[in-house]
Amino acid sequence: MTEISADLIEKMKIAAMTAQKNAYCPYSDHPVGTAVLDEQGRIFGGCNVETAHFKGVCAEASAISAMVTAGGKKLQAVFITAPDENLCGPCGDCRQRLYEFSTPDMPIYAATKSGQVKKILTLEELLPYAFGPQNIPPRG
Ligand SMILES: [Zn+2]
Predict the structure, then answer these.
(1) Which terminus of the chain has fewer CB atoms gathered within 10 Å of its CB, N or C?
(2) Is 85 a residue of the active site?
(3) Quick one: which of 36, 49, 19 has its CA closest to 98?
């Protein structure tokens, strides 16, 4: 697994917890925060944003969108804070999204609402035999 410094993990935790406070989730009451570390060492936070038609955006998707919008290309690490003191892994859709921008052995820190890391996951565990860019023939 890729080694991430304790300082960066702490910064990601703070970014995830800060983003989580802004979660808009009046329908599920399930606030989630995420922070992603890109290939340039930048950290982007994200929270879930729901809508009345139930096609909201997950915290992971928000954070990845912020990274891509800022020109980030790859994820070095991901930190997710759950709505409570239990582990909250990414949904299936987000596992695919994380895979799209992942780097090999990228750690995913699954933490509680208070920021305690419950488990360090890999995409190999979360999405084995993933379908991804390698399955699509190059164009042009
Ligand atoms: Zn999701």
Answers:
(1) C
(2) no
(3) 36
CA gap 80, 63 in Å, rounded: 10
- When divided into structural domains, the chain yields a total of 1
- For 83-139, what is each residue's pLDDT tens digit? 999 999 999 999 999 999 998 899 999 999 999 999 999 999 999 999 998 899 888
Residue 12 binned pLDDT confidence (cut-offs 50, 70, 90):
very high
Angle ∠(9,113,48) on CA atoms, nearest 5: 90
Q: State the residue range of the domain holding 31.
A: 6-124
Q: What is the CATH number of the domain that holds 51?
A: 3.40.140.10
Query: Which residues, by Cβ under 5 Å, contact ligand 1, an ion?
Result: 58, 91, 94
CA of 103 to the centre of ligand 1 (A): 19
- Inside any domain, residue 92: yes
Distance between Cα 96 and ligand 1 center (Å): 9
Q: How far is the CA of 140 from the centre of ligand 1 (A)?
A: 32
Set 50, 60, 124, 125: catalytic member: 60
Looking at the domain assignment, is residue 12 inside a domain?
yes
